[in-house]
Amino acid sequence: MRDYCYTARASAMLREYKDGRPYPWPGSESSFILYPESANQTIYTQEARASDAGRYSCRASNDTTIVNGDITLQVLGEDSNNGYKGRPLPTYKPASQLVALGDTARLFCEAYLGQVYVPDAHNSVTWRKVGENDTVPEVGRVSQYSVSR
User: Fold this and answer.
1) Above 50 in pLDDT, residue 1?
2) Are residues 31 and 100 in the same domain?
3) Is 3 inside any structural domain?
């Protein structure tokens, strides 16, 4: 599980917080650490624990501006015999994007779907482009991808 905080200027200062307390956090409070190759822009944990749940925020600042980003992390426990059976839970909140003509664009849709142990049940994620015509053509500039587990 990864949380990201980006800044546009290399000279900006980044600070991470959990429940209002600045990084670093005691291991009993959070197992998240700074990802060294990210110039302090990413915190991560290899194995989420119940104590990792909480409100994380990052603050990017330069001489004139401060930008804050907040992320609430929920850690779900699973009974290994039954699995999670609740509604899909968003794990990444999609955001509108601005892209220059000809540049690469990448859109994310991510949710925790749990595991399904019933043979005739399945989870799926489907993309569509919303507009005047809500159907997605099978050929052309827009493609539809459906991933099922």
Assistant:
1) no
2) no
3) yes
* Tokens, residue 33: 């650490």
Mean pLDDT of the chain: 73
Tell me, yes or no, whether 6 and 64 share the same domain: yes
Residue-by-residue DSSP string for 77-107: ---TTT---S--EEEE--------TTS----
More confident residue, 21 or 143: 21
Rounded distance, CA 79 to CA 66, Å? 42
46, 107: one domain: no
Angle, vertex CA 60, rays to CA 63 and CA 42, nearest 5:
145
CA distance 133 to 144: 14
Tokens describing residue 4: 């990201």
**Is there a single domain that holds both residue 57 and residue 103?**
no
Residue 131 sits in which domain range? 87-149
Could you tell me if residue 114 is inside a domain? yes
Report whether 84 contacts 115 (CB < 8 A).
Answer: yes
Q: Which of helix, strand or coil describes residue 36?
A: helix
**133 contacts: CB under 8 Å, gap ≥ 6:** none
Assign 52 a pLDDT band (cuts: 50, 70, 90): very high
